[in-house]
## 1
Amino acid sequence: MNIKHEIEDELERCTRCTLPITWETLYFDNEGVCNICRNWDAKQKEVNWEDREKQIIKIFEERKKEKASYDCIVPFSGGKDSTFTLWAIVKKYGLKPLVVSFDHGFYRPRTIENRTRTFRRLGVDVITFTPNWQTVKKLMLEALIRKGDFCWHCHAGIFAYPMNIAVKFEIPLLIWGEGGGEYEGYFKFADLEETDEWKFNRRIILGMRAEDMAGFTGVELRDLKPYMYPPKEELERVGIKSLPLGKYIPWDVKKQVEIIKKELQWKEDEIESGFPGPTYEKIECMFTGVRDYIKYLKRGFSRITHLTTLDIKHGRMSRAEAMEHIKRLEKRKPRSLDVFLEYLGINEEEFNKIVLRHVIYPAKPLDPKTLSEGSKLWDQDLWFRDKVNEEKK
Amino acid sequence: MKIGIVNNGLGNVGSVHSAFEFYKYDVILANNPKDLDASDVIVLAGVGNFKTAAAKLRQLQFWNKLGEEVIVKKKPLLGICLGMQLFADVSFEGGENKGLGWIKGRVVKIEGDLVKVPHIGWDEVKPMDEILFKGMRYNSFYFMHSYHFIPEDKSVIKAVTQYGDLEIVSAVRKDNIVGVQFHPEKSQGDGLRLLRNFLEMSK
Amino acid sequence: MTYKRIIPIFLLKGNRLVKGTRFGDFVDVGDPLSQAMIYDAQGADEIIIVDIDASGNKRLINTDIINAMIHKCRLPISAGGGIKTIEDARKCFGAGADKIIINTSAALNPSLIKHLADEFGSQSVVVSVDVKKSRTGNYDVYIYSGRQKAALDIMEHISRVIDYGAGEVIVTSIDKEGTLTGFDYEIYNKLKNITKVPLIASGGAGKYDDMVKLFKETDCDACAVGKMLFLRDYDIVKFKSYLKGRKIPVRDA
């Protein structure tokens, strides 16, 4: 087959960063440059970062004066962004955080190691919440069927659970990692948007709140509390400010990864859908490969595009080089799919049928059987498999 | 600061009420004219027919009371949609009907070769008042009307909106009286900001 | 220039929203208040909510649901379902609806439109018309949520409702509804010359380019979207970004 007929060549892509038209919220101007690149330009020029950092330091200093049990909450997964944020909060800004972690159920061995090391070295109190697995399974399948995206429980939980803890412990300051705007067009950099329910409803929960999910899955609403944003009245009572650090300091991921590697011996890991070798991107979830695979089936592009986009923006790669990598590496099926299907209790045929219902035009449905499998992650055999599932086979 | 919303039984005041509540303001629905005594700021909102609305305001004794509170006592007032049109001397909706006469001018039917009537939907507003439109993100607001206000004194015009070949006056301001043709209570973020700006300038 | 509107259309069945295909095969697509809050945050231009069983069951849409939406959302809401009298309409407005929608009543009793327009103003009265293409290629009008064919000529019916004071007309293609196969562009083009009021297209939106085509090739002012939002991976922000890139005037929000 001639390479020109392959899906990635048919998509309209940004003349600068290669992002294709099937990327969420993307559009091009008359020069064929995408809105995310333009937004990036704005970030470079318009934002007075010195001023921004002063703003947040002022908030920190005022909070410290109160001498409360905790100065703030840092929502935490153990990935590069939340690890950097936690490091900065403790070491750079001198706050005493309560670390709140919503366990999505798919931490990998190295993530657990990274988390433990970070907590111990920084000396922080941690609350890790593990949601009911039977509920998680139902939520994942429901979201996959309805939106072709199984990550609802993780996104909703990661966002809402720390807010609930903030209300419960009356800790009025939450510091998140990156602000929106770098990867997508939901928010503009010029905006100083607080991380509030509006954003939760707009962006995080795939058009389905817990009230909707309760009806879909038959799960009682009280069992979905960890996925519900606290009511406005409660947030106002505690006077909660929920802020992304990435809106107050320039967010340079590569530099930040260097910092956490040096200061915390944070370790990279390999992922299935990226470049070979260790990386810092999305290593905190077993199913990054499956997520990216679904994206490829739906949108005709995947993580390699995403990664090279950032490299182009930072001047580390040419567009031609990026396209080369995209063609060579992107079209692959992850070995972790078997584990994923076992967890969800569906077979591959059912999975394909669901996902192919969600192809985003102008991407074209392709036959997943034609894709070759990638190589197995070093830790996949260490992942928890329930004996019950084994016996069923 | 207490906000009194005139409840003339016509307009959709529930939305206006809840929009002000969003900012935790002290809001009351004024069901009879006396309720306005305790208000520091008055909101006159409404959609529908000019003639019916004017008749209702008279019937409920709001007509003279509004003059007293707004013209004599100089309480700040925000007129929304039909509420703004009522500022005029006269409207030609449902015959020729007298308005409150607070701002000289007339209310006429939207007419033009290129436009559909009613004018319904979100439209761009060109602001000519820095305080009322302070901090707006997009300056687009929701309109739903078939008639529009043409003030005589152009200096009261604080925003305009191009609708086909027609330029519609979308905001007016004269002393303590502010009017908008669109519905800030229905216009998401910018709408809420406009309501807040109005209250800020009324302090 | 007035922006083209993107309107999520909510079909209410009991206390939940449903979505089907060609007015049947309904599945649960969520809680009305929850969904309204989501689309408000995404920057939808309006919301339409219609109780699809109200007319058939001779009752009015549950106005408490409208009222709850009004208190949590900051966008215009049009409500319909079982409105037969001025009093029914007043209840909906009283609950906070910005516009009321009539469908079956507009066909059975067109003079109601006139009374509603006189009382509440044309801008608040929306007439909804459900159409189906017959084997001969003509369009038939259906009432009672598509369950009964009305003996009406579509062009005459729509001209009449506009003359009586409808401020907006929403035309739904039963053949296209829930199929994700694109709008019935033909009917909207046919209506071009008689709709002096804003026209809303409904039924068939399945991909971004369907909306582009609708707004480029017809005179429609707005489009209603259902299944594409509820049961596919799209949202209003994605719609508007794409339409903007295709030079369709849509509102940033």
## 2
Amino acid sequence: MRLTPDALIFWQYGFFKINATILFTWILMAILVLGAAFITRRLVTGHERSRWQDLLEIVVTAIMGQIEDVGLQNPRRYLAFLGTLFLFIAAAALSTVIPGFEPPTASLSTTVALAFCVLVAVPLFGISGRGLLAYLKTYVQPTPIMLPFNIISEVSRTLALAVRLFGNMMSGTMIIAILLSITPLVFPIVMTMLGLLTGMVQAYIFTILAAVYIAAATQNNNVIKPSSPAPQS
Amino acid sequence: MDALTWIAVVSIIMAGLTTGFGTMGPALAEGKAVSVALTSLAQQPDASATITRTLFVGLAMIESTAIYCFVVSMILLFANPFWNAAIAAAAQAAGK
């Protein structure tokens, strides 16, 4: 019983190996990049537009709306990073419909890499939004005794992001694999639908948590929206 | 019972108990969260977007502890380092 797609190695030469995770990540990247390049080749602003452009506009506008709801003032700055996170994880979840496709996010390597990107991006956005000293001051924010706890919370929420996504995707694929060997007729389809739902929810959760962490790092002290939570897990 | 059997028995029992007990707490907490969210949705239907989004984020947070227990169970069953080490030692002892 294979726990992650990392174990399925297609080609190996010494230290370098091409396993299923790398292969499917590159396939997803090719689909996303080439699809976006083709659709945005000719963007029009009139009424006669292609449906694909409409689709992309809906997706981009929805992501920008969510980023603004979280409390980030200028959503265009963060749209590239957060939008890419969402699209990659959502595409990985949706692609489980294709038989034989293992979502690369079902491997701990991919999810730790994505969580590490968030770990690096939060201080980057914080420093570029508030300045280095102001950002470092947030670590000693209520009192300097909180300094180790703030650092530990940074590390632990990165770990939580990675393990949450990994656990959800891995359990989805494993349940379907087990059910296919027990009752291969109807039940795997139901579990695939549940896996798709949880995959999309997890993509949304990952993106919104990254946005909330960035908002907590870049908020100016006089513009705090009372309706946006900043969960510390 | 030799060491190999002990490792297998304890791993299997603990894998079952981990997921069994580990999902009870999050299930109760998620039920409470959804019930409070439904109450507040009934009281203020026009804030439903914020409430729904916060509900989903909170549910994912609560769910993650259950996922941690599940991951530990999977490690105990399928990627157990003690079992692998014991199997390697037994193979080496048998091969000598």
## 3
Amino acid sequence: MILPLMLDRVAYREIIKPLTLDIGAGPSTIILGANGAGKSVLMRLMHGLLSPTSGSIFWKERDASRVRRLQAMVFQRPIMLRRSALANVVYALAVAGVPAAEREAMARAALAEVGLSQLAQRPARILSGGEQQRLALARAWALHPEVIFLDEPTASLDPSATREVEAVIRAFDAAGTKVVMATHNLGQARRLGDEVIYLHQGRVLERTSAERFFSQPATAEAAAFIKGELPWV
Amino acid sequence: MQEFPGVLAEARLWQIVLLSLEVSLSAVALAAAAGLPLGAALAVARFPGRQAVIVLLNAFMGLPPVVVGLAIYLLLSRAGPLGAFGLLFTPGAMVIAQTVLILPIIAALSRQAVEDAWREYEEQLRSLGTRGVQAALTVLWDIRFSLVTVVLAGLGRAAAEVGAVIIVGGNIDGVTRVMTTAIALETSKGDLPLALGLGVVLISVVIIVNAAAFLIKEAAQRRYG
């Protein structure tokens, strides 16, 4: 187990104000907030793409290579390599040091998991937006990470592609992977979230169960956000 | 005096065309093999003095062919450090000179192309755990279709230059005479029709090579997106 992840008075420039947070194994965590609240930066700090300007971030697991291997991230706009869908997943496995003989079987299993088996040989760059995002999920999932960070994975997708991606995310959650997802979409937060971290101008204003967050938000900002965002759902 | 287009029927002419292509394509192959990875490494690596290296590399795109020719001449001449190989006034010397001439072009342009792409790829590759040389090569391979134009820029320079090959090759009939040196010679001899005919052939060959590269690139790009 690499979790829990601890953030101790972590700040990043002016974007994230000093915050202390722990992310444990178990139910999915939704990081909710308006555009510019610092969701993406917080995800990148946790994933290790950014270093905090102050404070410290540490995992229970001390072995840095294990930490890297057991966590993955999917971005709002996935970057696919100019090769087949299958080769994109195989590439990720190769980088992670999986022996060559095991890569293809693992990659095919991951593609099957997201429902892309029949598109395995198709060049990744010519897949649709939703297919590319599912491929990105397969690529992240192939190593069976303990925690997966999702940064607005459906923000640029249409409703049907969004449903497919959400189904995959639910399957990961059901398989025991810790899902940490940033979104500004309240409907999605309701559908996928067990607990909500509400971020406002770089500060964590609330951390509570999704149910409670939506029924009785504790802060005026959160209440306004829920109200203001409702027409979008 | 030969009249154009009667000269086109001559075997001697085609020998010159063939040698030109051999020399320039060999130089492009060598310069690409070294220059593309070099450019990619420079795009991804961060080290002190990197900006100075980039400025220098960009400046070297404009190396005067005669100066490169002279430098290679000095290296390969009997008294020079590489004189023992006896390469001066051979096609080999011409390949070396043109490789030196176009290496900066290919390295500098691929550095820019990889760096632009790197902005897009960096987070994703770092997230997957790709580092260093592997990251540079991954991006290089991923933008391979754009790099065709980079390589063609090098080929254009090699096929068009006369200064370097005339100094290290010597324009020896049947041995090191290529299209550009032949054009220079025939012009100075006053055989303008032959010079002009060679010029037309040279430009045609360059267009054909570029058209072939373009078609291959387009087809591949349609296939892989």
## 4
Amino acid sequence: MTSYNGKAINVTRPIVAQVTYKKINLLKFAKTAFISNDNWSFGHKLLLISQKKTQKSKSAMIVDIDPSFLMRLSENDIIQVLPNGRINVLWEKKLNPYDITLFITNQCNAKCIMCPQPPKKDKYPLLDTNLFILKNLTNEPIKKIGITGGEPTTKPNDLIKILKQAYQSFPTSKIDLLTNAKKLSDFSLAKEISIANPNIIYCVSFPSDNMEDFNNIMGGDFYKTTMQSIQNLAILRQNIELRIVISKKNYSRLLQISEFIYRNFPFVQHIAFMGMEVIGYAYENLQELDISPREYNVHLLDAIRFLSRCHMNASIYNIPFCLIDKRLWKFICNSISAWKQNYVNECNLCIKKDNCPGLFSTSKVQKYSLSPIMS
Amino acid sequence: MLLINFAGEHIFFPINLFSSLIAYKLDSKNKLYKTLKSKYFIYGEQDELNTAVSLLSNQIRTKQRYLQDFTSLHMIEVTNYCNLQCDYCQASTVTLEEAKIKKDNNLKKNILNKTLDIIFDSPSNSIKIELQGGEPLVNWNSCKYIIENAHARGQLLKNKNVEIIVCTNLLLVDEEKLAFLKKYNVHISTSLDGNKELHDKHRTSYSGNPSYEKFIEKLALTRKILGHNSVGALLTVTKSNLYHLKDVVDEYIRLGFNGLFIRALNPYGMATRNLEELGYTVEEFIQEYKKTLAYIIEQNKKGHLFADYYTQLLFKRIMSPFSTGFMDLQSPAGAGISGAIYDFNGNVYPTDEGRMIARMGDERFKIGNVLTDSYEKIFTNPKLINITKKSILFTTPSCSNCIFNPYCGSDPIRNFVESSDIVGHKPSSDFCKKNKLLFKHLFNLLEKNDQDTLDILWSWATKRPLREVRI
């Protein structure tokens, strides 16, 4: 998400508010953040001001904000401000008019070796923020809601409330629920979640076809429970996407993983092969994990060729065109979120740039030499 | 060497490592070690074993899905009379009994109505009715009656999807009949043995006149009215065309068919009497089959979408996790529980072959008559239960320890013809020999791992053009 550091005045705890350019807010219950050039306003929860100083006021405000940052914000954007002056844009209309991403928790019950976002304790409860977002964007044309974490199912009660609110606010929007699915081996919980919202696609981490690698990559006993969970979801007629993050730990078995999926879970809607975002644990464990797409191309080709033959849907996420065998180009998705999409100088010469996921700007390693596609 | 687990997953495994595998001494660093685990050939930990049991039982349940669709294919013998007299024919000529029924209009209608009653008592949601003979169009009035009434019953019952197929040599079709068939969306299954020379060798009238020219003319008319893809053709392989199967394939492609079924001669009816002129050994058949399959694959590489349907079936059995419908090769057998045949006189048999044996004077496979028996009585007949019970390969001598049993099936009545026993004597069975050789051949193709060939086989298995399968 986009963030900015300003100076907080009268902000004692995190405030979530919806951006507005309207001076007067007459709806007392609406929490709005007014973007102001002078200091006159009425009824807003928060003021966003570009000037350095301001006259004495009891209102909560962030001052000294770069006008170019303020320009990015549009009416109805949702922001969170912290006592230290940080502004996090939780929903940014200009960047993603049709998508919402909700972070349920920072906690996780796994310790995946390639995790880009290592788990930590939640400093503040996140439920109200998430409900605020869902309740205040009902006039927006939201098509997809990504629910992620941490591991969302570690907060099952929050998750169910959010899924229900999402259905109320956006009855036709698809929900991508990113999960390691361990908790869904409890059939009752899986059932409760599946009836909370009929539009869920469970995006389940699926790193391997054998127990040893599976548990090794996920950092715990996940193999047995994940297999059970996928069966539970199938019994509940849920939509499932399996996600394989490619690393040195599993790149040579991409075909066997695909065969395993087709044999045991032919009902899954989609299989995604994903490039790594090298940050967090992925960066710490880079030596064990690092493998260039150029090296695993041949295995990726075998895997996707197999899935394509048996009429399973497969995609490639997070890997740029120039690192992938031409025959696989049609499976590449422009999958990296806009706010962390990065291109290098060479990319400006490339004819594929517009459809290319590019690189993670967040990755601490950007070394794979890219070569622009000219024709 | 080839390893297959009991849900049908396979691995090509180096033979020199087999002894260490079964002695629990395979090096866990061996490249195949993890694959053996992921395909459940070996287990190390309790969690692996539990997961294997639960996933393997899912796989087996999925493969046995056809059992949930209890009796969906219903074949009605509209008449026993045919306007052709092919020397290999398994059906026979008209009897006094049929002539008598034909004269008694009430009795005839009563039999047809009761037959439809029984068919629509079947719990299956998809009802497939196949009109057979003899030549069903000889008895056009009965055909019309069945099609109209089956359609009407289907309309009344929202949960039944009715599909009707007429098995005909096409010679008697005309614009009026075809317009009627079009109205009810009827499909046609016909016979074609190759080009003019090969076709006319056996498919002749009583007076010996050839039928090819007329067949071609009627095929065009049928396709014009019913649509190109509403006609499928079956091939009967005799000594005459066995060594010219390439020509047969060319003819099928020339006439715009999407595939063919290389069907070996069955040991019934007139075929048993003319065996000397018509027959061949299993080895001869397989040898020609392999050549023909290679030729068909070449044609696909050249851009023709043309399948060998039996290879398509066996390939799906080996490679896909799904259940496949083919009543002659199921375990337990499809006889009676996937399909049943109703004779012109109302007798019911588990398979067409059971009816043919009755025609030869042995009624042992008759499971009831629509005039006297209820659906329940017919389909719980102890004879049928016995057939079903004794056709499960896991419990059949020789089959229970055959490597191909997850893909294969039993045809109890064929077994009876071969060995006077519905369980069958596999070491002397041509049916068994033929299927084993075909499985071996298919696994040879898989082991060769030629990408073009695999693309083609998958395009047949998933019924998609090659360009959609290939990346």
